[in-house]
């Protein structure tokens, strides 16, 4: 079986099937075997693992996953790639390809059925335009996950692990750090892909907290507060929360909660740590029981 980490083999397969890259799916295929090795090692894939791959493309990374994992389910949205995957993965009997949009798939049922509800690993070379929705979706469904290892735009990877005070700090940073411990495993230049993207990429590994280190009384409220405070970054936190259609607290209630926590009511949301957002959420929750 031709290994697709080799650019010549990739070009051969694309020509064989007269494949046309779809801009709407943000397709950039990996053509560097060193990067593929780094992804497998960052995800710590072993023969005990059930792996969900999102966006296998022509199966480049999938081949490596099949070699290293117990079982792989690869979810591909582009139906034009399905015959190619049947070809490139024909040597492996531990892989299932599903032609679907991962955001519409019942992943909890899939994990239950294929892995007895035990924690799985997710690996993906994600299209840039849909990185955040997919990662947030995986967290919010509360899937049993060990880790998520994804190739994303470099600036998105930086955003996931940054803290207060940075221009990159935002709702994504807080969500990722609430659910997991982020670690950038490798920086990947544009020439490792075909076609070449205009920006650098990075492999980031998100190891899910086994036990949440945080005590949150109302998770939905916490994320509504976070979204509201970054929707209007330039406004003070008090005004941002007060203007949000998702929240029903008065300006006085917000100012009172901040004051009780020793936080200035003129602070901006981008200055608060995750722990402070949690404390504020718990404080406001106690007002509206």
Describe the structure.
The protein has 289 residues and is α/β, with parallel strands linked by helices. Helix content is 40%, strand content 18%. It contains 12 helices and 9 strands. It has helices spanning 7-16, 33-42, 60-68, 82-88, 107-115, 131-140, 154-161, 171-179, 219-231, 237-243, 251-260, 274-287; strands at 29-30, 50-54, 71-76, 95-99, 120-125, 145-153, 180-188, 193-194, 201-208. The strands form 2 sheets. A 7-stranded mixed beta sheet has the order 4-3-2-5-6-9-7, with helices on both faces. A two-stranded antiparallel sheet has the order 1-8. Strand 2 (50-54), helix 3 (60-68) and strand 3 (71-76) form a beta-alpha-beta unit.
